[in-house]
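Sample pair:
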Amino acid sequence: MVAALILVLSAIAIPHVLVSVDRSKGRAAARFLAGRITLLRAQAASRGKTMAMVFERDRRGIAFRVHEDGNGNGVRAADIIRRVDVPAEESVRLFELFPGVVIGVAPATPTDDPIRLGGSDILSFTASGTSSSGTIYLAGRDGTQWAVRVLGATARSRVLRYEPESDAWVAPF
């Protein structure tokens, strides 16, 4: 009887625990990305040159890589292709660090593009502490939607979570 009761309680509790774990991974991935943005801002200031987080889309999803300005005109797609603006780090795929979380859009989210940086997939940071503005969206396995917003004037980032019930973005902390 005791074993049956333990099995029933476990069957009830395990799905709730798994949802909580998935939500924690989404929050951790969003905080990780916001932390990388903060670090990149500091690197641009300390090196005295423009640094950028370049988002790369391929069949496996979206990855990001940090590039350094090589000729003093900012990090540009054409300069990346010509290898003037060189990679400062290897590509990072969030789903490899946080299984179940991707740079993407969950079904109920009111946007269709996971990288909203104007007309570009490059988030640039200047030596003076400013950046391009925009939002990067992350989708969790449990359907949660996260956003990392960057304000250009200060280059500061903010993590938000979308609540479909209220159709609002809220601070998760």
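The mean pLDDT is 88.
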